[in-house]
TrEMBL record:
UniProt keyword list: Kinase, Phosphoprotein, Transferase
Domain PAS: 41-87
Domain Response regulatory positions: 509-620
UniProt keyword Protease present: no
Name the record gives this protein: histidine kinase
Annotated positions of the 4-aspartylphosphate modification: D558
Location of the PAC domain: 91-141
EC category name: transferase
């Protein structure tokens, strides 16, 4: 039989005096605060005194709510008064109180009431829950701190069970995937693969090793830096924690540096070859033109056609050397302020006329001017347009749009400022993602007869102009090339006179300085045909000798003479002996305006006679007359 007794059984065991003694022992030994009150305190036990710091004697005449923290005081007052009126109030609640020293404490209070002589009395027990409250508040703070850190982390973060199931993914990754993925396979949900990723490090991580590596996702053409580390939970279960940082931009920058260094080594080689080749080409072109002039009257239509073909082949070769020279050291652009509207229209129409590709050009009249080498930029446009045409073998459409762009914030490699944005969009076969980062590399081609130099040249030219070129494309969905060129601060484009095909007639003395005999001879012959008196010099000594002996109206000087003094070195002699002599610098390299400013004009080899006479006409206007007949 149980020794436990009910309260009524116990009350039989004690008389009133003994029962009061039991109550006293109970109240004084209890570790929870117990107090009896109406509006004011009637009794508080020692535990209450201990946790509030108030002595029973000090609480006499104090209203119970006076101990309550001001935030809760009004509520407690209302409830107490309601309770004393016999209304129903919550029997249990949490409040904040103030101890006798003003310290804040949290109490959990349970209140009961009883009636005596028609008056309601309240008896309450209270537990100090300050520590629990503080602990749970600290826990909540810590949790929200961790949550905030996880949310602020700009990478992708996830944990994986040993059987490739996702256990946790951060908000950024969940947003990227687009739906909740807990319990799903990591390689399917994150990387869209049917089996574990080729770079998967789960096995090493489960063996206790941390793995760090760069990975490339070809489908997205994105690079990530991955850190995978073992994660052991308190219950002993093991997961792998993965942190992925998108490093695509950094990788692209590295590739850009590599590309530039590749270009630099090619440029050295190209520069050397192109320079010699240019001299040869100048001579061939000159001689063909001369021969054609000499035989003009006697030429049959067929022979005339053959000459034209020879010239056009030479022009193609000239185009090639220009391309090579763009790589070379001296291939820096000769920039002038220009409007690109007409040039784009002409180049596009030239490249696509007669093909099955139609085009649409939209360029506003108020497009910013740009400071460009028009020849080089023309090459950029034609390389892109020809690629677009080749990407649409069964025909299609190419859209070209140019517009002004005012950048307030940096955009990729572009600093804030004014730019002209030119967009070429085709509807061709497109570029697979895995090729996107390679197409600007020299020699990258997917074409049977491609050189892989077209876009590398575009890239190099645009960089030299302080601009930027980029591509977006999807296989089968066309390609879009975007070019950004800094807008020019200058207002008006320098006028660019197209040379008329006219017989040039002039007079005066001309000195030709070139180590290549064939160039000297060709120039001499054509200048003499136009009425000039011509002297030749094959080296600097001869130049100095001749200018000491006679006055020249014009000196045409080659920049580099192997093993000897060239144009720059002989110029001071010319200036001091015959200061009135006009000087033309010739070179196979494109030179910056800065480098040719001591000379009166610059001619880039190979040049046509029209170009030569246009320059002479400017320098010696009083000594020339133009004849309207065709040469
Ligand atoms: P090439 O034309 O000699 O191949 P490029 O440097 O001009 O050299 O182009 C490199 C590669 O870029 C091409 O082989 C082709 O795969 C790709 N490409 C360039 N433009 C386009 C385009 N508009 N559409 C599809 N692929 C293109």
């Amino acid at each position: 039989m149980s020794n436990c007794k009910s309260l009524s059984e116990i009350s039989q065991l004690f008389d009133t005096h003994e029962a009061i003694e039991v109550l006293r022992v109970f109240l004084e030994s209890a570790s929870v605060g117990i107090y009896l009150y109406r509006e004011e305190f009637i009794y508080v036990n020692p535990a209450f005194e201990k946790i509030t710091g108030w002595k029973l004697s000090e609480l006499k005449n104090k209203k119970v709510w006076e101990l309550v923290h001001p935030d809760y005081r009004e509520t407690v007052k209302e409830r107490t008064l309601a309770r004393l009126r016999g209304e129903k109030t919550p029997p249990q609640y949490e409040i904040k109180i103030l101890t006798s020293e003003g310290q804040e404490k949290w109490f959990e209070v349970s209140v009961a009431t009883f009636e005596k002589d028609n008056q309601i009395y309240c008896i309450a027990t209270t537990i100090d829950i300050t520590e629990i409250k503080n602990y749970s508040r600290n826990l909540a703070d810590t949790l929200s701190e961790y949550k905030a850190i996880l949310q602020a982390f700009d990478g992708l973060l996830y944990t994986v069970t040993p059987d490739f199931r996702l256990a946790f993914v951060n908000k950024k990754l969940e947003k990227q995937i687009g739906h909740p993925v807990s319990g799903e396979l990591c390689y399917e949900e994150i990387f869209g693969l049917k089996e574990p990723c080729p770079w998967c490090s789960l096995k090493e991580v489960l063996e206790g090793r941390s793995v760090k590596k760069d990975i490339h996702i070809p489908e997205e053409d994105k690079w990530y830096y991955v850190v995978a580390t073992p994660l052991i939970y308190p219950d002993g279960s093991q997961h792998a924690l993965h942190i992925l940082m998108d490093i695509t931009q950094q990788k692209r920058a590295q590739q850009e540096i590599l590309r530039i260094s590749k270009l630099e080594s090619i440029s050295l080689l190209a520069g050397g070859i192109a320079h010699d080749f240019n001299n040869i080409l100048t001579a061939i072109l000159g001689n063909i033109s001369l021969l054609r002039l000499r035989l003009k009257k006697h030429l049959t239509e067929k022979e005339e056609k053959l000459f034209k073909q020879m010239e056009s082949v030479c022009f193609r070769a000239q185009g090639l050397t220009k391309q090579l020279l763009n790589f070379a050291e001296g291939g820096s652009p000769i920039k002038r302020v220009a409007s690109i509207k007409e040039m784009i229209e002409d180049t596009v129409s030239f490249c696509l006329r007669g093909s099955n590709v139609s085009w649409e050009i939209s360029i506003p009249d108020d497009l910013f001017l740009v400071n460009i080498d028009t020849v080089q930029f023309g090459q950029v446009v034609s390389n892109i347009v020809i690629n677009a045409k080749q990407a649409m073998p069964s025909g299609g459409r190419l859209w070209i749009k140019a517009s002004n762009l005012k950048l307030k914030e940096p955009k990729g490699p572009l600093k804030p400022g004014d730019y002209v944005e030119i967009i070429f969009r085709d509807e061709g076969m497109g570029i697979p993602k895995k090729h996107l980062s390679k197409i600007f590399d020299p020699y990258f081609t997917t074409k049977k007869d491609g050189s892989g130099l077209g876009l590398a040249i575009c890239h190099s030219i645009i960089k030299k102009h302080g601009g930027h070129i980029e591509v977006t494309s999807q296989k089968g969905k066309g390609a879009t090339f975007k070019i950004y060129l800094p807008a020019s601060k200058e207002e008006k484009p320098t006028s660019y006179n197209l040379v008329q095909k006219e017989i040039f007639k002039g007079k005066g003395r001309v000195l030709i300085f070139d180590d290549e005999e064939v160039i000297r001879e060709t120039l001499k012959e054509v200048l003499e045909m136009s009425g000039f008196q011509v002297e030749e010099a094959k080296d600097a000594q001869e130049v100095i000798q001749k200018i000491k002996a006679q006055n020249f109206d014009l000196a045409i000087l080659d920049l580099t003479i192997p093993g000897g003094m060239g144009a720059k070195e002989v110029l001071p002699f010319i200036k001091s002996y015959t200061p009135k002599t006009k000087t033309i610098l010739m070179s196979g390299y494109s030179l910056e305006a800065q480098k040719v400013k001591e000379f009166d004009a610059f001619l880039k080899k190979p040049f046509t006679f029209d170009e030569l006479f246009a320059v002479i006409d400017k320098l010696l206007p009083t000594k020339s007359t133009k004849n309207a007949k065709n040469r």
